Amino acid sequence: MFNICDDEIVANKMPLIGDTAPEFHAQTTNGPLHFPHDYAGKWVIFFSHPSDFTPVCTTEFIRFQELLSQFDELNTDLVALSVGAIPSHLAWIHAISEMDGGAKITFPVIADMDTDIARTYGMIHDSSSDTHAVRAVFIIDPMGIIRAILYYPAVLGRNFTEIMRIVVALQTADAFRVAIPADWVPGEHVLVPAPQNTNELNKFAKKREKNIDSRAWFLSYKPLASDTIYERLTQKSSGAKKNK
Ligand code: BEZ
What we know:
By secondary structure, this protein is an alpha+beta fold. The protein has two domains: 3-158, Glutaredoxin; 169-243, Antioxidant, Horf6, Chain A, domain2 (Antioxidant, Horf6, Chain A, domain 2, 2-Layer Sandwich). Helices cover 32% and strands 20% of the residues. It has helices spanning 6-11, 55-73, 86-98, 116-120, 160-176, 198-206, 226-234, and strands at 24-28, 31-35, 43-48, 76-82, 109-111, 135-140, 146-152, 190-192, 213-216, 219-222. It has a five-stranded mixed beta sheet with strand order 5-4-3-6-7, with helices on one face. Strand 9 (213-216) and strand 10 (219-222) form a beta hairpin. The longest helix is centred in the N-terminal third of the chain and has 19 residues, at 55-73. The protein is elongated. Mean pLDDT is 91; it is low at 1-11 and 237-244. Benzoic acid binds at residues 50-51, 54-57, 154-155.
């Protein structure tokens, strides 16, 4: 049973898909940050990790850094957060740069000492830990709107193929006005949005576009080549990188 009043529910509401990303100012390993304003016009992957100097987080930081240039081609920046202090973050990323198979971490890491930002974003799940963030991922579009959210527990590292797929899929959905089927990867057929009213339904019935594979009035596939996608998303020639 809920025993808190509506005001408290509203005050504690964590941002959800479709919400504007809550604004904050923070100190990071790369200097001060005003979020999401500093990223206007860009996609952002804003993610939290539980602790510095921990194994799973270290593998994730290396993986994020390895993929940074691919995200950059997709006009997408990375911003990390944990409750640690800047000196701890700096010492950890220095250690990562020195270790075998390590990487020089160039994306900013927020020091959220008082957990204010993590709590605002619902990154602290009290039943798991009331002092450390879970592995949250917020994918935020160039208008500052939250478009996807993932949560992983501390013991499980994120799936970077899926994070990359989400960024490409959302950008593809926006750029080509299509929807994205289950398990889609670039190069596979996409979905034509289903008719939303009788007018659209009648138009759909009359005008069958060629190349459209229509299984029912509400389920139609169409081809979309991965070269076409990457040319549009990266504004580059068809030699652009494919999703991994
Ligand atoms: C890790 O990154 O390995 C980790 C962090 C917090 C709790 C458990 C594991």
